[in-house]
Amino acid sequence: MTADDNLGFAPDDDQPIAYMQRTxxxxxxxxxxxxxxxxxxxxxxxxxxxxxxxxxxxxLVTTAAPYQADKGDQGPGAAYNASAKxxxxxxxxxxxxxDVRISHIAYDRTHTTAEDPNSxxxxxxxxxxxxxxxxxxxxxxxxxxxxxxxxxxxxxTDAPEILERxxxxxxxxxxLVPNCPVCHQTVSLVARHLEANGIATVVMGxxxxxxxxxxxxxxxxxxxxxxxSAGRPKNxxxxxxxxxxALDLLEAAPGARTTMQSPQRWSASADWKRDFMNPARIPxxxxxxxxxxxxRQKAIAKTIRSDGRAAGC
Length: 313
Known about the structure:
There is one protein chain. By secondary structure, the chain is α/β, with parallel strands linked by helices. It has a domain at 53-261. Helices cover 33% and strands 12% of the residues. The chain is built from seven helices and ten strands. Strands 1, 3, 5, 6, 7, 8, 9 and 10 form an eight-stranded mixed beta sheet that branches. Strands 2-4 form a two-stranded antiparallel ribbon. Helix 3 packs across helix 4 (181-196). The radius of gyration is 19 Å and the shape is globular.
């Protein structure tokens, strides 16, 4: 026992996961060179709300994909499924329910199962908040942002497309909800573009290092496993508090790079933080299997891109 043991300190690794370093180490262990360079800015645009939130029209941006029945298993607990990816922005009506899923991205499949869409797609709750008067109105459409490793594609193609759709819908503010590590970079780049063009934003996410490294105006951080940016699954109280905090931040942030951390904890233990893409916890034979599977999924994604069969509308 050390002197610090009597002070009630949390374990040293009970802190936000360093996803950029974790993914770098993971892919180097799999045998890939040329580590990924994450987007990083020193200047962050900031657009204050042009009107009170109770009078504002709010849109949702998601990285979840529309369910495609012919694209294999996309259900709760499904393995990573590149066939379900989409590579063009899409939109859907906000007054309808939608079957959108996250099997196509790298969420935490060890500690969560993607069985509750409300933990990553808060559209029904946004409708409820609009009915209660917490926001002035929900925009007629939500928008899907493709998760591209190419920042150039996101910056030059996808972000401008989402901006134009938001403008067409008369949007005042946008809530962006990512899932995987690259998703967090994607929505951060989209948020920056929207802010630079007069639309206030807030990102709700679980990868603190990535969002803050890119640099966004407002960020609600939930220290949860990836795939739960909108709150704990099957817990309406958690989901409502998470969205309420994001909307509070949208109103109250004094300037760019404002991060608010949700007070919610995933569990009493921080052990779940040690698993995601951690090569130190993966046996050598499993590393080989994951390398082979990763190569297979990359080939599938390449075929989808080249054939132009990505979901979108």
